[in-house]
């Protein structure tokens, strides 16, 4: 028997948008029944590559082969006929429909007669697909009632359902499937993927190298629109991948431990016996100038509430918060702002930036009053522009300009603008909730460098995160929360970092 | 408002980028030019200075009401009570002018509008009723009050000073009512782009949570937007009463739909955060030119309604820069 043609092959695929080359001569092979990891920084071309494969965009040059035959995909529908299904990060399910309705959305024609749906047949079909995949979800369940991980599985089942309707084996593109999943949900997903080998060929796009090592049998890295490396999984190492993704070797101290400040300034932020019914119990904490205090805890432990109390989004029922010894009016964002407390929220697109507005509008928002002309209610456009340009340059924000809509920026660059909007105003206390969320390794590293230089300037930083290595690596001190109270304070000197285990022990 | 910042170093300057830079979409202008050309060919009188002044006179009040609506739509809310504020303010003005004089009458008309806006805003933030419902209820309440006050018939007045003020020409050839409307539009555009108030309104419309996290007093500024809207409608009511020479219980009846059409056609998104007063001016012009053009070419009023509706749908479909809208609902 001759070796079977690969499920999917890209030959010298180039995609240009005007003068911008998003993909530059990509060669890629997805063997039949293979699981290929595709990794790269934001802006490396992963999204464009996905849209070329799933028919959303046509390549400018080059060929796409499915099962050894050259295809030209003009739309996602044509891609679906060829068996290609994409599972997006932003889920493509309709919440108020039932699971089986979602799985067959757009394919009802094959289950209907004269416009009347054969609901029984649809349910039966959906149940068979779910059973075959070993997914224990009721096809009659209302999709909106499922949790995120379950919805992700439904989305994948939808992709397989297509494969059953057309006489082709599915090629499934998973775009960042784990970014919003808990560890347990991720494990369930990976178990499923392993079981589906032999039924489908899969491309897994991910930020997390751990995902790739867990489930893929080969990995391809993208850098600046080109393939920068390809390895069978046995030959790949985190350092090799890191270098291929970023374009330079991983620096020794990823968390810039050598820049960690060991001599700290005066106490800047003080919490004394702060209570929030059901969320925080008698929390006392002080943070010095130049100190980074890492806050760890499981969901609902009070770590998020701590951030909200400091920024005035949540009103404590008792206790005191002081900044430089001055008592802060509780539960007032305005008071927090007046005390120069800045915050980087976890949900960047919901709470951090206004996507449809420009980089400049976002950046100057917290400090807008400082751009007023003396004694006149008129804002100076020139000064706003100058300030914006200065911060774009200082933080090396990659943007077409200050009037670019911020939603066109990559996650890392948008996050830099969130930092800049507070830095432009001047902060003495900075509350960061998961500042590295959704950022690639390169962008994270830049954010870490920024944190170190802020600490050097004497800002007191409260770093809340789920990412333990990040918390331990960056912080001078790790505070763990359990059931609304501080369960431990663990020193984390640059040369004497605590182990993850010692932190986790105090979280559960 | 991403495109409102002029670049300091401008390279090649074409017309489209010039407009884009100033936050004005080119397409409503094209619609306007097409309408002018069409009606101009039909009836030579249409494209005369006299008729242009006519159009201005007919659309000044609508411009004020549309600007009012714009300020609220900018924050992602909606004010359905605009037309009924015009009616009530107009009647109050007509009642006040003979006993108290034109100054008090103006203040009373505008004051009624601001007060209604305050009530709208406070109801919205205190009771957390969506603006759509608050102002829908207010629409009914105000129409009722207006009719109760005037008993369903027009209120005439003797003092003609206000009427003279509105119709006289500070700039020769142009009635003052047009001037007042245009100056108001200019002031609001200035507020939108050059003041903290404007910036906060855009921020609230674009992302309420982001604005709140950034320390913008969101609730207070929402109330300001409704007060601004109410005040502008009050002014519109004053001018309308002066222009017509009477306060009538149906004065603002048709203004709600025309103004929303004008706002959206101009390019302010109903979801908020995008657009602004400068765009609404063009939207109002489209509607005004269309109405006047059909009058001049003697189209029957029933046909006019049909054509107007269709043109509004077509114009909105072709003028919206869809890339900027997340949802079309």
Automatic annotation (TrEMBL), chain A:
In this protein, which residues make up the domain named ABC transporter?
8-249, 262-508
Q: Superkingdom, according to UniProt?
A: Bacteria
* UniProt keyword annotations, A-Z: ATP-binding, Nucleotide-binding, Repeat, Sugar transport, Transport
Asked whether the keyword Cell membrane is assigned, the reply is no
Q: Does the keyword Transmembrane helix apply?
A: no
Known PROSITE patterns for this protein? ABC_TRANSPORTER_1, ABC_TRANSPORTER_2
Q: Which Gene3D superfamilies match?
A: P-loop containing nucleotide triphosphate hydrolases
Pfam families in the cross-refs: ABC_tran
> One GO MF term, please?
ATP binding
Can you tell me which family this protein belongs to? Belongs to the ABC transporter superfamily.
Q: What is this protein called?
A: Ribose transport system ATP-binding protein
Give the originating organism.
Kaistia hirudinis
TrEMBL record, chain B:
In what way does this protein cross or attach to the membrane?
Answer: Multi-pass membrane protein
- Subcellular location per the Swiss-Prot or TrEMBL entry: Cell membrane
**GO molecular-function annotation terms?**
transmembrane transporter activity
Chain ranges passing through the membrane: 20-41, 61-92, 104-125, 132-158, 170-193, 224-248, 260-290
**Alphabetic keyword roster:** Cell membrane, Membrane, Transmembrane, Transmembrane helix
One short Pfam family name for this protein?
Answer: BPD_transp_2
InterPro entries referenced in this protein's UniProt entry, alphabetically: ABC_transp_permease (IPR001851)
Q: CDD domains annotated for this entry?
A: TM_PBP1_transp_AraH_like
Q: What is the lineage of its organism?
A: Bacteria, Pseudomonadati, Pseudomonadota, Alphaproteobacteria, Hyphomicrobiales
According to UniProt, the name of this protein is Ribose transport system permease protein/putative xylitol transport system permease protein
- The principal localisation class reads membrane
GO CC field? plasma membrane
């Amino acid at each position: 028997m001759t070796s079977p043609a690969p499920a999917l092959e890209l030959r010298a695929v180039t995609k240009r948008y005007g003068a911008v080359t998003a993909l530059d001569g990509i060669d890629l092979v997805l063997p039949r029944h293979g699981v290929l990891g595709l990794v790269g920084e934001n802006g490396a071309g992963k999204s464009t590559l996905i849209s070329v494969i799933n028919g959303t965009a046509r390549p400018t040059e080059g060929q796409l082969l499915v099962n050894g035959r050259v295809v030209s995909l003009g739309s996602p529908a044509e891609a679906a006929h060829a068996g290609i299904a994409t599972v997006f990060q932003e889920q493509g399910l309709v919440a108020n429909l039932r699971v089986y309705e979602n799985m067959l959305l757009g394919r009802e024609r094959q289950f209907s007669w004269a416009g009347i749906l054969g609901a029984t047949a649809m349910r039966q079909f959906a149940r068979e697909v779910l059973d075959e995949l070993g997914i224990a979800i009721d096809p009659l369940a209302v999709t909106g009632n499922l949790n995120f991980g379950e919805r992700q599985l439904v989305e994948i089942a939808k992709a397989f359902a297509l494969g059953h309707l057309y006489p082709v084996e599915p090629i499934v593109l998973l775009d960042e499937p784990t970014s919003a999943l808990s560890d347990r949900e991720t494990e369930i997903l990976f178990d499923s993927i392993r079981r589906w080998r032999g039924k489908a060929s899969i491309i897994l796009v991910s930020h997390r190298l751990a995902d790739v090592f867990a489930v893929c049998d080969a990995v391809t890295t993208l850098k600046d629109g080109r393939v920068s490396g390809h390895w069978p999984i046995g030959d790949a190492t985190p350092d090799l991948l890191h270098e291929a993704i970023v374009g330079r070797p991983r620096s020794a101290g990823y968390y810039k431990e050598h820049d960690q400040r060991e001599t700290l300034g005066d106490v800047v932020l003080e919490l004394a016996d702060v209570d929030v019914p059901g969320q925080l119990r008698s929390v006392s904490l002080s943070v010095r100038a130049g100190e980074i205090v890492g806050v760890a805890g499981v969901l609902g432990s009070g770590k998020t509430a701590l951030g909200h109390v400091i920024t005035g989004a949540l009103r404590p029922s008792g206790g005191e918060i002081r900044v430089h010894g001055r008592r802060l009016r509780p539960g007032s964002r305005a008071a927090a702002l007046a005390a120069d407390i800045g915050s980087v929220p976890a949900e960047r697109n919901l709470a951090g930036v206004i996507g449809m507005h420009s980089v400049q509008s976002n950046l100057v928002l917290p400090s807008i009053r400082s751009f007023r002309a003396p004694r006149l209610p008129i804002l100076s456009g020139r000064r706003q522009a100058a300030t914006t340009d200065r911060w774009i340059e200082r933080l090396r924000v990659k943007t077409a300009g200050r009037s670019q809509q911020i939603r066109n920026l990559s996650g890392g660059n948008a996050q830099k603008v969130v930092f800049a909007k507070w830095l432009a105003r001047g902060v003495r206390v900075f509350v960061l909730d998961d500042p590295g969320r959704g950022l690639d390794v390169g962008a994270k590293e830049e954010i870490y460098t920024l944190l170190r230089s802020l600490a050097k300037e004497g800002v007191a930083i409260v770093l809340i995160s789920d990412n333990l290595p990040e918390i331990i690596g960056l912080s001078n001190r790790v505070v763990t929360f359990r059931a609304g109270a501080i369960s431990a304070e663990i020193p984390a000197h640059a040369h004497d970092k605590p182990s993850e285990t010692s932190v986790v022990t105090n979280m559960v | 408002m991403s495109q409102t910042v002029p670049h300091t170093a401008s390279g090649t300057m074409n017309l489209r980028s010039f407009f884009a830079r100033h936050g004005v979409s080119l397409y409503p202008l094209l619609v306007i030019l097409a309408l002018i050309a069409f009606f101009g060919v039909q009836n030579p009188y249409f494209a005369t200075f006299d008729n242009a002044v006519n159009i201005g006179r007919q659309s000044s009040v609508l411009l004020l009401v549309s600007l009012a609506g714009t300020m609220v739509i900018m924050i992602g809310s909606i004010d359905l009570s605009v037309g009924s504020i015009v009616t009530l303010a107009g009647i109050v003005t007509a009642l006040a002018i003979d006993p108290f004089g034109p100054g008090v009458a103006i203040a009373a008309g505008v004051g009624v509008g601001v007060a209604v806006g305050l009530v709208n805003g406070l109801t919205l933030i205190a009771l957390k009723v969506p603006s759509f419902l608050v102002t829908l209820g207010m629409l009914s309440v105000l129409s009722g009050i207006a009719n109760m006050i005037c008993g369903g018939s027009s209120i005439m007045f003797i003092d003609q000073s206000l009427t003279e003020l509105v119709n006289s020409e500070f700039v020769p050839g142009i009635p003052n009512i047009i001037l007042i409307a245009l100056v108001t539009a200019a002031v609001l555009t200035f507020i939108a782009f050059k003041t903290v108030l404007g910036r906060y309104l855009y921020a609230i419309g674009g992302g309420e949570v982001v604005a709140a996290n950034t320390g913008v007093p969101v609730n207070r500024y929402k109330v300001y937007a409704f007060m601004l809207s109410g005040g502008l409608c009050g002014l519109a009511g004053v001018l309308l009463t002066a222009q017509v020479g009477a306060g009538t219980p149906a004065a603002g009846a048709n203004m709600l739909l025309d103004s929303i059409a004008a706002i959206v056609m101009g390019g302010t998104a109903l979801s908020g955060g995008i657009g602004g007063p400068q765009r609404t001016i063009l939207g109002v012009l489209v509607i005004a030119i269309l109405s006047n053009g059909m009058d001049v070419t003697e189209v029957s009023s029933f046909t006019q309604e049909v054509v107007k509706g269709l043109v509004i749908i077509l114009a909105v479909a072709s003028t919206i820069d869809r890339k900027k809208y997340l949802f079309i609902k």
